[in-house]
Amino acid sequence: MRKSTGRRFLLAGNWKMHATRPETTALIDGIKEAAAKARDRDVLVAPPFTALETAARALVGTTIGLAAQNLHTEPKGAFTGEIAGEMLKDVGCGWVIVGHSERRQYCNETNELVRLKIDAALRAGLTPIVCIGETLREREADNTLPVIERQVREGLAGLSRDAVKNLVIAYEPVWAIGTGKTATPEQAEEAHGAIRRLLREFAGETGAESIRILYGGSVKADNVDALMAQPNIDGALVGGASLDTTAFSRIIAFQ
Ligand code: PGA
Predict the structure, then answer these.
(1) Which of 21, 36, 109, 233 is packed most tightly, with the most Cβ within 10 A?
(2) From the CA of 64, how far away is ligand 1's center (Å)?
């Protein structure tokens, strides 16, 4: 827990399209010890759909949370190949990633769809981890803040204050994801501060202070400490390094 803000840090592993069921059990075994020691922070993993049930079983008796990487907007119906939030809840998820940049990029997910998926997640009793972030082109054109502002405004449009307070936001500059390029702590803090100021409009001043804003994009064992030291960075959404239990354990234990 961070004394000055009351927000608990959250370290989330996004496994993307990796991990069979045996690999899932091994990955969870490999971070149990670090997670058990991290009493003042939250830890969760987001395996692929096919490994969620295995993960749920492996997580029994731990404090590690379970997230899915995506959901459909409807609770059920003729949507071949899709998965409903209610199904994720049923399998043991407490969280779901929404609007990851890879889904925005490869599956044409828009802010409007993100907005609907947030509703679907909340309706199913899942905490949405809403991803936003600018591309390299947008950053080079000095458009970072307008882009993330638009993602927040359109993604959260019309949500109640209470709903917004229940979200986790993940700032993930697209140019830093899977590229080995991390935003500097100062670049990340600038974006996080702007996001928190904007969230005041949606959740009120105290509400905005309570919302966790994670940083994502090439978070590694050797850069996590400096990132987490920034006042508005409340945790990390970790891709590549979450598939290495030594690295992710060190990230969980950041100082
Ligand atoms: P990365 O991915 O840590 O591999 O850059 C982060 C993410 O996509 O959530």
Answers:
(1) 233
(2) 19
